Amino acid sequence: MTDLYDIPLTMIDGTETTFGEFRGKTVLVVNVASKCGFTPQYAGLQALFEKYQDDGFVVLGLPCNQFMNQEPGTDNEIESFCQVNFGVTFPLTAKVDVRGKHQHPLYAELTKFKHGVLPGLVKWNFEKFLVGAGGNVVERFASKVEPGSEEIASAVERALATARTA
């Protein structure tokens, strides 16, 4: 298995980095889209980020246009849309593929995690993977699970508590 922290990322502003930028943090990785029925979840993702960021939590949004072309914009348009409509301050990457021939390496690793009814490939926009501070996927959530849900809040709090005691 590849170390998640070695996986390269291109941020939405074009900056090159790796997932290692988030080493030691609890990260909710979400494939996002601006023209999806789940797009209002941006507000919940931002609220979740604001609530827990001082505890070592970050939301990482990866825009994806693979599901019914629901993210057709350029990286600049996506960034502007997120800031203007939802006040997004959590990090976003450049647009990626989350499945298929050009699947981003991060998703190649994340989708190896088997959890409940969601093993394998990403099914739709706004699926969420919770990565613990040690770099392991600890939970996976379907698109319909709202960022403000008790299910996600509890998982984030457990992951943060584990990180504090490690």
Q: Which labels suit this protein?
A:
single chain, 166 residues, two-stranded antiparallel ribbon
Topology (SSEs and partners):
Blueprint: E1 8-10, E2 16-18, E3 26-32, H1 41-52, E4 57-63, H2 75-86, H3 105-110, E5 128-131, E6 137-141, H4 150-165
Parallel strand pairs: 3-4
Antiparallel strand pairs: 1-2, 3-5, 5-6
What does this structure look like?
The protein is α+β, with helices and mostly antiparallel strands. The protein has a single domain, classed as 3-Layer(aba) Sandwich (Glutaredoxin), CATH 3.40.30. Helices cover 28% and strands 17% of the residues. It is built from four helices and six strands; from the N terminus they run βββαβααββα. It has helices at residues 41-52, 75-86, 105-110, 150-165; strands at residues 8-10, 16-18, 26-32, 57-63, 128-131, 137-141. The strands form two sheets. The protein has a four-stranded mixed beta sheet, covered by helices on one side. Strand 1 (8-10) and strand 2 (16-18) form a beta hairpin. The protein is globular. The model has no long low-confidence stretch (mean pLDDT 93).
